[in-house]
Amino acid sequence: MAKKAVLKCPSCGTELDQQHKGCPKCRLQNPFYGTNRENAEAYALELQGVKKRSRLITFLTLLSLILFALLLNLTMSIRTAKQLTSSLSSDEVRDSRTVAEENYETYGMTLETYLQEGAYVEVAAFAVENDLLDSKVYRPYRLVFEQSLSYTSVFENFRDAALGDELDIEAVINGVNDFYRYYDPENYTDENGQVIEVAEDRTLKARINMDRDIRYMIASAFDAEVPSEDEFPFMTEEDRAEYIRSLRQ
Known about the structure:
By secondary structure, this protein is mainly α. It folds into 2 domains: 85 residues, no CATH class; 146 residues, no CATH class. Helices cover 63% and strands 0% of the residues. The protein contains 7 helices and no strands. The protein is elongated.
């Protein structure tokens, strides 16, 4: 059954007849005036459809604007959170370095105790935990820190293998080569060959002791002879890597 339209005033909604020239209530010109009933109903249906589509478009437009506003707000919130996190992280780093620099005497005594006891894994952990690696105040210890980190990497790989894990031979090689990259039993030098001020003789002794420990760890892990202290530290990285791989065969 075809849908029958009700002729209503587009302005106030008063029911109209195509015989009325204008709306009896608001006096708006009657858009159905002079048409036959069939044409008037068709026009009324079309007009109602236009209104419905218009309301739908308005609703979708408002919904889009709301979603856009929510998305924009979410984006700004994420950006603000990242900036805040970055700021907090920077503040934390500055705070930890400030604390470390203010407590140089106390921290220095702790480091010297570790070095005296040969606790090089603890040296590395203490340096990382207290953000000492890039501190200018602790520059005399810089290469001790770097080499103790490499030493720790080698130590942990051999320890894990002894506890049943598969030995990561390439990680061992990388750790050993990192340790010997700037190794000099007599001086501290940077990557440009410039001598760096040392804290005390114990820092040089620490490097020699770490070298000895690494060579003994290699011998123990592969059931081999202890690598020569006169040759092994001064091999090229490629020769040292090949030597370590040959011990596993």
